[in-house]
């Protein structure tokens, strides 16, 4: 069984951008399964010499009758349950939002290892958000830029001992 990493976080923090960077052209077909997995993209990721499966919880933006919070809770709980590790992204440029803080509580109770990452950290605009992320109680956040490929070493250092 291969190691699986779930990328979780509220919409627009950069989950899919990171997913695409990790998966590149190796994107797997989306499984047409009922429930939360329907909202999920899965692919074969590569990070330096590491190979693993990655989930992108992609469906939070879909229009359903459920609230964003309900969908996010369902997807986050499923990801925590099914993945071997989770990467919890916040948007350093937007700063920590109440929704981020709410879901940080969920992440803190996870049995799976969680890495907190402040994305969009290229340049100085992300600095206040990076410091805010320390307050989420998930340890020291790594500074990431999914778009520019920054922070991949720190992600590697987190994953290496687990895989
Ligand atoms: P998702 O909703 O969490 O999957 O977020 P997306 O991957 O769709 O990205 C949301 C927006 O943030 C898009 O406009 C991305 O181009 C932008 N974005 C993603 N990563 C970065 C980053 O590292 N830096 C900056 N400045 N923008 C980013
Ligand atoms: Mg997305």
From TrEMBL:
* Binding-site residues for GTP 1, renumbered to this chain: 9-16, 56-60, 119-122
What sequence ranges are listed for the domain EngA-type G?
A: 3-163
Q: What does this protein do?
A: GTPase that plays an essential role in the late steps of ribosome biogenesis.
Q: How does it assemble?
A: Associates with the 50S ribosomal subunit.
What's this protein's family per the entry? Belongs to the TRAFAC class TrmE-Era-EngA-EngB-Septin-like GTPase superfamily. EngA (Der) GTPase family.
> Could you identify this protein by its name?
GTPase Der
**Portion of the full-length sequence here:** 1 to 163 of 463
């Amino acid at each position: 069984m291969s190691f699986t990493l779930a990328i979780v976080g509220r919409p627009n923090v950069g989950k899919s951008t990171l997913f695409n960077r990790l998966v590149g052209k190796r994107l797997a077909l989306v499984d047409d399964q009922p429930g939360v997995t329907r909202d999920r993209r899965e692919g074969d990721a590569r990070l330096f010499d590491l190979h693993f499966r990655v989930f992108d919880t992609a469906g939070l933006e879909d229009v359903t009758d459920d609230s964003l919070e309900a969908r996010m809770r369902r997807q986050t709980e499923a990801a925590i349950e099914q993945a071997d590790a989770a990467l919890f992204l916040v948007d350093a440029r937007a700063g920590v939002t109440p929704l981020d803080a709410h879901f940080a509580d969920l992440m803190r109770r996870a049995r799976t290892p969680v890495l907190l990452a402040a994305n969009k950290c290229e340049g100085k605009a992300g600095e206040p958000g990076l410091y805010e992320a320390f307050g989420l109680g998930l340890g020291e956040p790594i500074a990431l830029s999914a778009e520019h490929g920054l922070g991949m070493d720190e992600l590697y250092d987190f994953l290496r001992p687990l895989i």
